Amino acid sequence: MAVLKTYDQNNLEIGEITLAPEIFEVPVRPEILHLVVRAQRASWRAGTHSTLSRSMMKGGGAKPWKQKGTGRARSGSGISPLWEGGAVIFGPQPRDYSFKVNKKVRQLALKMALSASLGDQKIRVLNKIELPEAKTKHFAAVAETLGLTKALLVLPQSDPVLERSARNIRGITLCTPANLSVYDILNHRQLILMEQAVEGVTSRLAQAN
Questions:
Q1: pLDDT of the residue at 2
Q2: Which of 71, 76, 87, 137 is least surrounded, with the fewest CB atoms within 10 Å of its CB?
Q3: What residues are paired with 173 via a beta bridge?
Q4: Gap between the Cα atoms of 76 and 181, Å rounded
Q5: At what angle do helices 30-44 and 103-119 cross, to 10 degrees?
Q6: Smallest Cα–Cα separation from 11: which of 93, 97, 125, 89?
Q7: What is the pLDDT of residues 87-120, one digit of tens each?
Q8: Which of 121, 115, 101, 51 lies closest to 79, judged by CA?
């Protein structure tokens, strides 16, 4: 059972918190993480690429020149794929790249990502962050005090002041337990959990058991 120290926004130790072992101490299987991350990235693809095949193009009905006697190679169509501006053979067409991953597998992957972060000592727990107003400089000062570089901050709920203050700081991402994802956890070097957000993450993943 993992016990982490909790800190305030001034980077001062203020207490301890116990993390649920069934969520933060799960054996990590890289193939599960890879599958879920691949599915998440695939769902982002627009799939709007399109090329013209011969059936989609106009023209091409008349033979460009006679078969023999011109000294040129034979040709039967002005939209031949061999010609510049002609059709494309087996070119990409609009498609949906997303594929389904079962909910239990996605939940398991999220537990594994949290467990891997804990094992790599990437997780820190903060009591809360309070800013006098929504200004980038205020959040930047807190980030510098805490040593945040490429960090994912999990808030207990949406906070417009923090979101507006952090949106212009490169490498800092804010989310809530409801939209916490495997990709975001693995794509950041630091995982900062607000103390109340730990309860939200635990509650969300406990429902999958």
A1: 85
A2: 71
A3: 152
A4: 55
A5: 120
A6: 125
A7: 999 999 999 999 999 999 999 999 999 999 999 9
A8: 51
Q: What is the pLDDT of residue 1?
A: 75
Contact between 127 and 6 under an 8 Å Cβ cutoff? The reply is yes
Count of all residues that appear for the chain in the document: 209
Residue keyed to tokens 């800190």 = 7
Q: Each residue of 14-50: pLDDT tens digit?
A: 999 999 999 999 999 999 999 999 999 999 999 999 9
pLDDT at residue 208, as a whole number: 55
Q: What are the contacts of 179-185 at 24+ separation with CB within 8 A?
A: 180/110, 180/154, 180/204, 181/40, 181/110, 182/33, 182/36, 182/37, 182/40, 182/106, 182/109, 182/110, 182/112, 182/113, 183/36, 183/37, 183/40, 183/41, 184/152, 185/110, 185/113, 185/114, 185/117, 185/152
Tell me the pLDDT band of 206, cut-offs 50, 70 and 90: confident
The helix (H) or strand (E) run that includes residue 189 is: none
Bridge partners for 6 per DSSP: 15, 125
DSSP E strands, 13-78:
13-18
Which is nearest to 60 in space by CA: 75, 45, 38?
75
